[in-house]
Specification:
Layout (H helix, E strand, L loop, with lengths): L1 H16 L5 H16 L33 E9 L6 E10 L4 E11 L9 H19 L9 E4 L11 H9 L3 E5 L10 H9 L6 E5 L5 E6 L9 E7 L3 H10 L7 H17 L4
Parallel strand pairs: 1-4, 4-5
Antiparallel strand pairs: 1-2, 2-3, 5-8, 6-7, 7-8
Helix pairs in contact: 1-2, 3-4
The protein binds two DNA strands through β1 and α3.
DNA sequence: GCGACAG
DNA sequence: ATCTTGTCGC
């Protein structure tokens, strides 16, 4: 048991350490890392909290009266500088339910050496995001979003079934939900495909993303009457798709979930205001 | 071979 | 991701 875990850690360490110079070798290595981390992925609800209840349903539930209620939700995003693509600002915000007010925020202005390559976003963004999580855990543990983190990027809706939200969730050991603002084409999924399904009925705003192989990769959701554009929901870590969809729907003020929207807005602001110090 | 490809 | 003003509508 422990041997297996240690071997796994050693392999990961070996794979993670090298900052190679050959693109194809790197990508091969990155895929090994993704497959290794994927073995630790939990694809079902695995947490102790429960969703906030409405009065109507609050009546009979003698069982989980002791369970804590989902209270703090984290959101992470990274913004980039227009004229200096290596300069970026990572943000972590923590919102409190049910008011969705931001109660904590953390920023990091960094230079990223790893380029963006479709399918490997995590190797560019995850390190700085994990650093922000560590900062909160050390300095403001009360606000550490251990219950749930929203990630700007996909979960299992990914060529290897292991996108940024999964990557971050496994390494931080927190439940995560991945939100894509654009569709990553995987297993035959296309935007026209989704549009067709959604367009069929005007009041149908949620469709399951089933690939050509029959695998369910996530869901497309039109959350706001003001925008016809759907978002793409996929599970990250320690949560089921059904639960993820339910929470997304209760946490949207605009097109995308409020934690991600806030992280997006604030990381951009912070970058504009502090880019001169780099 | 060509095109597609989260942020 | 980012480049970018106005504009149509509630």
């Amino acid at each position: 048991m422990r041997d297996r875990s240690q071997n796994s850690d050693l392999l990961l360490e070996r794979l993670m350490e090298s900052t190679g110079d050959c693109e194809i070798e790197n990508q091969t290595k990155w895929i090994e890392v993704q497959n290794e981390l994927k073995q630790r992925l939990i694809a079902a609800d695995d947490f102790t909290w429960k969703l906030p209840k409405h009065e109507s349903e609050a009546a009979a539930d003698g069982n989980d009266e002791k369970k804590e209620v989902l209270k703090y939700v984290g959101g992470v995003d990274v913004s980039y500088c227009k004229d200096d693509p290596s300069l970026a600002c990572a943000a972590l915000v923590v919102l409190i339910l049910p008011t969705l007010q931001v109660v904590h925020q953390e920023y990091s202005l960094v230079r990223l050496g790893v380029p963006y390559i479709p399918g490997f976003l995590a190797f560019r963004e995850a390190p700085v995001l994990l650093q922000l999580l560590e900062k909160v855990k050390a300095n403001s543990p009360h606000f550490y979003p251990q219950q749930l983190i929203f990630v700007d990027g996909n979960g299992i809706l990914h060529p290897q079934g292991f996108g940024l939200a999964c990557h971050l969730g496994v390494l931080a050991d927190c439940p995560t939900i991945g939100i894509g603002k654009n569709l990553h084409h995987v297993d035959g999924l296309t935007l026209n495909n989704v549009k067709q399904l959604l367009g069929a009925k005007p009041d149908l705003n949620l469709v399951t993303l089933t690939g050509s192989s029959g695998i369910i990769w996530g869901a497309a959701l039109r959350s706001s009457p003001r925008s016809m554009r759907p978002m793409f929901i996929s599970t990250g870590h320690r949560i089921s798709l059904d639960t993820a969809i339910t929470i997304v729907q209760m946490i949207c003020r605009y097109r995308i979930p409020e934690p991600i929207r806030q992280a997006d807005i604030r990381s951009r602001e912070y970058l504009q205001k502090h880019r001169h110090v780099c």
